[in-house]
Amino acid sequence: MQLSETVEWGLHACLALAMMPEGARIPAHALAEYHGLKPSYFSKAMQKLVAAGIVRSIEGRSGGLALARPADDVSVLHIVMALEDQKTLFRCTEIRQKGPCAAAPKHYTAPCNIARVMHKADAEWRRVLAETSLADLRKSAVAEPIFGVNEATQAWLSETGALRGV
After folding, report:
1. Which candidate, 12, 16, 113, 165, has a CA 20 to 30 Å from the CA of 37?
2. What sign has the CA pseudo-torsion 78, 80, 86, 91?
3. Residue 141: half-sphere exposure toward Cβ, Cα within 13 Å
């Protein structure tokens, strides 16, 4: 399984938004710059998150991006599903019904054992993502900081003036 890189961008962007003080917002171009991404690609991901009601976009000179709801109410699965066009990990094409030795279609009444195990794995993957909130990610990021990143982030925010509304 491989998710698009947009999922990684969206997860990191949402975590960054979850780390901001209450009422703060940041312009999309600044958030893209912070992550070293091209603003045009990044904005498409942000548009999907806005459409899904995860992120809100505030217009105007002091506008920017912010979470649309509390970090406790946003699961990793919400973000992944908002960004990923592929809704399931496994797509069964019923290959067992093809080829010279296949039985008549009427004999294939239940999903095969391969499809069942793949769907079970998909459900488990979704369960783990659904049980993990942005607040959980924020808590672990705060508990396990990477040396120098917090200080560099604060300095960058001050220098660029990217953080608004605080």
Report:
1. 165
2. negative
3. 17
Contact by Cβ (8 Å): 132, 79: no
Tokens of 52: 């899904």
Of 86, 3, 79, whose CA–CA distance to 45 is shortest?
79
Each residue's pLDDT tens digit, 74-107: 999 999 999 997 677 788 889 999 999 999 999 9
Whether the model pTM is above 0.90: no
CATH code of residue 91: 1.10.10.10
Number of domains in the chain: 1
pLDDT in tens, 118-162: 999 999 999 999 999 999 999 999 999 999 998 998 888 888 888
Q: Which long-range contacts does 147-156 make (Cβ < 8 Å, 24+ apart)?
A: 153/34, 156/34
The backbone torsions φ and ψ at residue 83, rounded to the nearest 5 degrees and listed phi first, read: -100, -25
Establish if 95 belongs to a structural domain.
yes
